[in-house]
Queue: 2 jobs
Job 1
Amino acid sequence: MLREYDTSAIAEEQEFLDRATDRRDRLAGRLLAELAEEAGDAVERARQRMLRAQHEELRRASEGLVFGRIDATDGTVRHIGRVGLRAEEEGAEPVLLDWRAAAARPFYTATPVDPQGQARRRHIRTTGSVVLGVDDEPLDGAAGSGLVGEGALLAALGQRRTGRMSTAIATLQREQDDIIRAGASGPLIVQGGPGTGKTVVALHRVAYLLFTHQQMADQAVLVLGPSGRFLDYIAQVLPALGETAVVSATCDTLLPGVLVERPESRRLAEIKGRAVWQQALERYVAALLPRPRDLRLRWEGEFTVIPEPAVAQALTSAVQGRPYHRARSVFADQLHRLLAEAIAEQREALLEEMEQGYEDILARFDRSNGVDGSGAVDGQLSEEDIEELADRIAADPAIGRFVEAFWPTREPGRLLRDLLCDPALLAAFVPSLSPDEIAAVAAEPGGWSSGDIALLDAAADLLGDHADAPDRGRAAAPGGELVADRARRQRDWVYGHVVIDEAQELSEMQWQMVLRRCPSRSVTAVGDIDQAEAAHRHTSWAQAVRAAFGDRWTAAELTICYRTPREVMDLTGPVLAKAGSGNAPPRAVRASGIEPWQLTVTPGELAGAAQRAVRELRDRWAGGTVGVVAPAARADGLREVLAGVPVLTAAQAKGLEWDATLLVDPDGIAAEPRGWNGLYVALTRCTQELGQVILT
Ligand SMILES: Nc1ncnc2c1ncn2[C@@H]1O[C@H](COP(=O)(O)OP(=O)(O)OP(=O)(O)O)[C@@H](O)[C@H]1O
């Protein structure tokens, strides 16, 4: 790798950046002019939405418009950038290749060992519209480090952290790129140790999939993260990559209109996360379906009986795997029709009787007058008459009340509460629960816990929406509304793809929430099974996803740690082993030159010592970030004395990073449930320096 300060190379790239900027401005200007025209119909409005998205993407691509270049051995030069810029002339090579385009791929994957027809890779460092420097990397067969663009990568990794994640399109590594561009037809599970770029990969994969699959952009992509704090941390990455068709949520916020109202114990979280609840709820909802019997309905003062066999047949054909409310409304339609037909039959019989009497009279009259009588009266109701009658029956409030009494509409929250509070029902429908577990579930206080959300989601799905339910967000979208806004409001929205970060934390019931939103199973899940802290008991991906995918999923792995320096990663091996893992920690890509340090204090000295340590770290990493990780039992106390820095538990720190971490009472963290996994998380949050406060 050469760091090239050759002014002619910088001048050359400056000239290119100026040209690309000019081209971008022209294209953006043209789009603006088109957008100023009035959209006449739905097709034009859809086109305008697309143009607006393109304009927005060009507008955002000011910082880092051009960041790379690849020179092929045949002399072809391609520049790579945040967006693609087509040439003025029809059919000519693009001025700038979008980083997601297939032709840009060698920029991320060519190595001296596998140069893919390329002679050189160049990283171009810019700020705004100015080229600062270039890093050249020959791909001529000489042995390399295996890293792509090592200089640019190490420069990016060494930068101060701002508390917000940034894009890594200029320095993605080969193993990361392979996952970003992998096929999306089935579940892909990516295992990677701390700092291996799982979040980077997950987010860049979203951008790649939205770029390459129009249907995903139409259906939106769901990004599931472990916490609101984590979603804030990654919030600006996808917009910076120009993506808007994305909904980000946690499993707790996925069900519109429902919020977690209270904490729950690990024991109950584990119990409620088990896959058995899916079947239990299916059976419970099935048991609430009405049983067939004679139905005696009153219409216009007359009673009509729909006999049990006809009711049974209507029930069977209505249910057929449909959600409860959908089946109810199919049944109601059939009942209205059955009643209309029965009334029609009664009328026909009546008319026939009348007709018979009338014909007898006529016949007598005809005979007495010597006429051949044929004055038949037709008493049959036409098909339209019956339809019209069925419609009137359907609109009748008394019939509506009758149907409601026979087949009540149900509210998912109420239904779940009835089940959870009743030990007899729990024993009947969740027979795998022990008596102790049943008692614990039934004794829970009111208000929803996190574990309840996945159960509620399952109940809501099995019930389906009631036809008269209040607006569920399906109302026509106002002009220009983003697909993501509609998806966010609709419980049963089907996404084009789902990306899950920290996927090791999901319970089996939470995996079901994912499947409901993505029946195609086009899912990318990234996580580290060794960082699992949630209450479930899974220690391998095969266990974690068996209930959701069986063995039909693809595994991928990330092996290099980009975040945590070697000096800190060296401490993690024994911790990982104590967590019961057979894996080795990932290989750190760099050293920081700063040895981890520790100080030992008594509990009484802790507050003062932590204050001093944080002050020193903040001075040392001025302009960057410092975070404190502590056992849950100490976190509140520390928050009171450590203003201005985040004080988090290991679970809360998941996915986050700071330049320096102060780890308070590591033994206390290790003693928490799944504590060694938690300590592994806590140790690996820093990009530069780790200090530990040990308690005597
Ligand atoms: N190719 C890359 N170029 C530049 N920076 C990168 C690259 N890959 C990862 N990083 C940086 O390394 C750090 C760790 O990445 P990331 O948070 O994605 O890792 P992770 O595997 O999700 O970690 P954890 O499991 O600990 O949450 C981040 O600062 C990220 O920006």
Job 2
Amino acid sequence: MMVLVMGVSGSGKSSVGLALAKRQGAPFLESDSLHPTTNVAKMAAGVPLDDDDRAPWLDAIATWMAARPHGVVACSALKRAYRDRLRAAAPALRIVALLPPERVLAERLGQRRGHFMPGSLLASQLATLEVLGIDERALVLSGDKPVAATIAIVAQWLTLDPRHDAHNLSA
Ligand SMILES: Nc1ncnc2c1ncn2[C@@H]1O[C@H](COP(=O)(O)OP(=O)(O)OP(=O)(O)O)[C@@H](O)[C@H]1O
Ligand SMILES: O=C(O)[C@H](O)[C@@H](O)[C@H](O)[C@H](O)CO
């Protein structure tokens, strides 16, 4: 089973994705490690990435997904087209979207040290994020609970038949 944990910078996708991968005994991909150095330099300079910047990065993530049956990937996947690109590589992809309120995101990014992504990019991240379509059958979580609580919900959801997936904003 391939799982995408997505959201804007600070949503907790890396923390939740890594903890989920450990719990599931699945390989974990921190997709930031596949950004070309030019992308990292751009973000570090406070300039948002565009579609052209993200295309080779999404291709590399898609290659990682296509190469294995199981895995957990932390990736922003902000636009529907990006998620479509990843689904083309992993048709049964299950998506967990973390959508903490902006106040929580800003607080987390303000406290974080030693990361290339500046908090000043939060506004563009939120403006770029495209709402999950019902047909994407994602689990949509507020992501402002402790990581252990979030992954317990996700692990339970993953045991359910994906045909029953629906939006769920309750947790
Ligand atoms: N559930 C949580 N509760 C409190 N703090 C959290 C939670 N999840 C993540 N954090 C903290 O918020 C910050 C951002 O988390 P994380 O790096 O996992 O997010 P991200 O979406 O991967 O961000 P980025 O894409 O910018 O790397 C980190 O300092 C992390 O420790
Ligand atoms: O699509 C994007 O704009 C990027 O993937 C960003 O989301 C960052 O890489 C990430 O948030 C920082 O870790």
